[in-house]
Amino acid sequence: MAAAVVATVLGAARAGAWWPASAAAGAAGTAWIARCGVRRDATTVWPAVAAVGAAYVVALLAGVDAVDTWAAGYAALLLLVAELAHAAAGVPEPGIADAASRVRYSRVAVAATLGGFGAAELLVAASSSGGSGGAQVTALGVAAAAGALGVLAAAARRASSDRT
Question: Which residues contact 117 (CB under 8 A, 6 or more apart)?
């Protein structure tokens, strides 16, 4: 829940005059995450994560910048919110996992968050490079896409090896 609160506060702080709408969306999402955690209902966490993301969308619509340099950090934070919300709601079940499994799960969650941040930062760099783009922007986009696929492949490989 702390990650959702941080995401809500960041979105509202950047929304200017629209901060009440941003705060309301984020607070609704955070409350829904809490509800899902109490009920151990991971199947309905996605609307909560979407609402927390909507807090940032309001900030973007409020006219932050043409290219928001906070986008990569917020994307990584939103990924962390989603992962922690699902974990709190019971996927995976923390009570039945041993300590080593929880440590492996934490490492994968942190690696995915950092990998997501890196890929998003490359995309922000590509979009804010200015000019007509050309080979540099294409190269940054390819690197970001390859990085994102690498993070997904590593997470999938890790998940499949943990099951066997």
Answer: 72, 73, 75, 76
pTM confidence score: 0.66
The first and second tokens of residue 153, run together, are 């492949």
pLDDT for 55-108, tens place per residue? 888 887 877 566 677 777 888 888 888 887 877 777 555 555 677 777 777 787
Question: What does the domain layout of the chain look like in residue ranges?
Answer: 1-91, 96-164
Cα distances (Å, whole numbers) of residue 114 to 5, 52, 121: 19, 19, 10
Average pLDDT over residues 38-66: 81
Q: Which two tokens stand for residue 74?
A: 């917020």
By the 8 A CB rule, do 1 and 33 touch?
Answer: yes
